Amino acid sequence: MTQQHSETLRYRGREYSLRVLPLEACDRPDVMQRMATFKGLSTGLWRGYAGAWAIRDGRLWLEELQATVQPLAGYDSQDSERDLSWLFCDDPAPVLADWFGGDLVTGCGKAERSSMHSYEHPRLRVFHVARGVVQRVEVRDNRVALRTGRKRYAVWLAVLEVI
């Protein structure tokens, strides 16, 4: 399987690759209808979009979106590019991700190659989010998984902070 292009997350002045797709959890009917027209243009981006996220003031924001959509019947036959204002036409950018609840996972530390097309980090930062609000941030030790070749999250290392 082809490695997929990651979503990005800005946190405390740095940019990280996300291991999850927060937009996929959006359950707003108008947004879901527009997302259904996304078209993957390469094997590295089957979902048809790439998003840039940020955590500011303890909240998760969708700041940027680049998407390719399928042409509509009776219109121009060319695929066309869309942005965040097209997907969330009723909300000004950035958009608070109040639909998202779950864990956002990013790598911490210098990435190491774990297979031909994949890299793993010695630690994983996990943001626990409920309705777009970060509840807490933890770091998990991933070194055992790296040594044994497992890609699953390993042992809890520490609680970094409570937001």
Distance linking N and C termini: 37 Å
* Helix residue percentage: 10-25%
Total of helices? 3
Instruction: Tell me the domain tally.
Output: 2
Low-confidence stretches: 152-163
- What would you report as the Rg, rounded to the nearest angstrom? 17 Å
Mean pLDDT: 79
Structural class: mainly beta
Can you summarize the main beta sheet? 6 strands, mixed
N-to-C order of helices and strands: EEHEEEHEEEEEEHE
Number of strands: 12
| Net shape | globular
Beta content comes to: 35-45%
Protein model, in words:
With 163 residues, the chain is mainly beta. It folds into two domains: 8-96, no CATH class; 102-162. Helix content is 10%, strand content 44%. It contains three helices and twelve strands. The radius of gyration is 17 Å and the shape is globular. The relative contact order is 0.16. Residues 152-163 have low confidence and may be disordered.
